[in-house]
Specification:
Strand content: 35-45%
Structural class: alpha+beta
Largest sheet: 6 strands, antiparallel
Number of helices: 2
Order of helices and strands: EEHEEEEHEE
Distance between the termini: 29 Å
Shape: globular
Number of domains: 1
Helix content: 10-25%
Radius of gyration: 13 Å
Length: 95
Amino acid sequence: MTSGETINTVEKLTIDASRVNRYLSYPRKVPIWKLKFSLPEECVLFRDEENSDIAIEIENMRGFAIVPALSENESLGRLKGLIPQIELEDKIIRL
């Protein structure tokens, strides 16, 4: 999706990861990170092939994401590519 999709973050929204083999495959496993964030009531979601391996759950303008990335900073950058309006609420946790 190039233009993005406006979503209501008050209602529950769950998006599953669709390309999980990217981070579970041989020869190297990519670390998985959990990020908790808050959002405005309406925001834009930019889902595409590059971030289809990110799983998110949003409800009541808060949410969390499970992001495969090589580093903590990369996980935040990848999530901001999916939802630019996020505000990180807690420490990023490696799972």
